[in-house]
Amino acid sequence: MPIALEARGLVKAFGDKHAVDGVDLTIPKGTFYGIAGPNGAGKSTTLRMLSGLLRPDAGTATIDGVPVWPNPLEAKSRVGFVPDNPVLFDRLTAAEMLEYAGMLRKMDPDVVALRSAELLRVLDLADEAEKLIADFSLGMIKRIGLAVALLHSPRVLILDEPFGALDPVNTQVMEDMLQLYRRGGGTVVFASHVMDVVQRLCDRVVVIGGGRVLAEGTVAEVSGGRNLQDAFVELVGGRDLEEGELAWLSSSSG
Fold it and tell me: 172-227 pLDDT, tens per residue?
């Protein structure tokens, strides 16, 4: 299958700690691809290198056939990225943020206005369009972050923990939007440590632990016929309570 995103030997260290230590990925176009791992596994660092926001110490990455490094500008035109905690201009309104994003992308103002109105309506933010982002909840910030990422209709959408802080209704809306985007030929790559979300949505998944790839394949291949969470815990190393620990929790006495 044609490749949407590829990484070879990605490495990133912060001091003595290797956050990412030789990650290889091949992500086919039109797939819903999950990057799973525990907190601190290197997921976010990997996504930031793939999207052109963080320069790797070693290795290569390409998006839609375009090398991300050493010049990430062309690659960035083909990708939309939503971090775990989107950093937006909080003294702008939601409508102004989208208008500004369109200006940065050198988009036609009429196209920006049309797409912005539709995105805000679908994401249930139309009534908040003139509200300052500084007054948004985290869930609202995630939604406007997604709108900014989709505005220029990128070929690859990269999301870091996209469903955190969303209520069930808006989670369903976001999932429906992402499936529509994929049916239109887009590729969705998202990181999560919530295995039921990965199992429900993804075609393929990679499990990362300690900055390295522990397993990769279809969800069925990685889970091996088990619940994906059970396979995930086995891969990354689970922890069990020792017998007798916290025994006082089961006691009704004071």
Answer: 888 888 988 999 899 999 998 888 888 889 999 999 999 999 999 999 999 988 88
Q: What is the pLDDT of residues 108-145, one digit of tens each?
A: 999 999 999 999 999 989 999 999 999 999 889 989 99
Strand 3-14's sheet: what is its strand order?
17-28, 3-14, 58-63, 66-67
Residue 13 in contact with residue 160, Cβ under 8 Å? no
Q: What is the largest CA-CA distance in the chain?
A: 69
Q: Which of 59, 103, 93 is nearest to 212 (CA)?
A: 59
Integer-rounded Cα Rg, in Å, for the chain is 20
Q: Where are the domains of the chain?
A: 3-78+154-250, 88-153
CATH topology of domain 3-78+154-250: Rossmann fold (3.40.50)
Answer whether 125's CB lies under 8 Å from 143's CB. yes
